[in-house]
Amino acid sequence: MEECLNARSGAELANSIAARAGVKLHECYQCGKCTAGCPMAHAMDLMPRQLVRYMQLGRMEEILGSKSVWLCASCHTCVERCPHSIDIPSLMELSRQAAKARGRVGVKTVDMFSGIFMQNVKMFGKSHEALMEGVYNVTTGRFMQDMENVPHMLKNKMVGIEPHTTNNPEEIKALIERALEMGGEDA
Ligand code: SF4
Ligand code: SF4
Known about the structure:
- The chain has 187 residues and is mainly alpha-helical.
- It has helices at residues 7-21, 33-37, 48-56, 60-64, 68-71, 77-81, 88-101, 108-124, 129-140, 150-155, 169-184.
- It is globular and about 50 Å long.
């Protein structure tokens, strides 16, 4: 069920997200250096600079409905380039969580991949790439996606068929569940 935000609740959510990310929104003066260096900007519908501007204005509707919050690769290039080191990836991530909590998923395949990845890590304590890729391809119906890379990756031991686990996967699972609970508290 989608929940629409009015101006007041939008501003409250923007301020809450900024506080959790440790960002002072007023410090952004819209120079655009973040957008200029973002490797995902070509695919985004809301540029990193615009995301901060919309947050300054409390216009969370545009942010929650965007694809950008799902496409940010958390590479931190924007943070490095920003004169005020504004933590845009955290703003993106927290906005993504807020969008999902309201039933909005801008890029379904990213959400599916994320879910499969987390299940995988919960099960093995670390990522089992071959299984993850297989489950993702079957779930999305993209059966042959990236299959051309498999022989090369197997040959060079970049991925393996055998499952590999940490000593205590249950510990990792408990950590992830706790982190998800904490992440969802203010979403
Ligand atoms: S680089 Fe920093 S100050 Fe410049 S637009 Fe981006 S977030 Fe704002
Ligand atoms: S962290 Fe996200 S917004 Fe920032 S440069 Fe990387 S992909 Fe772009």
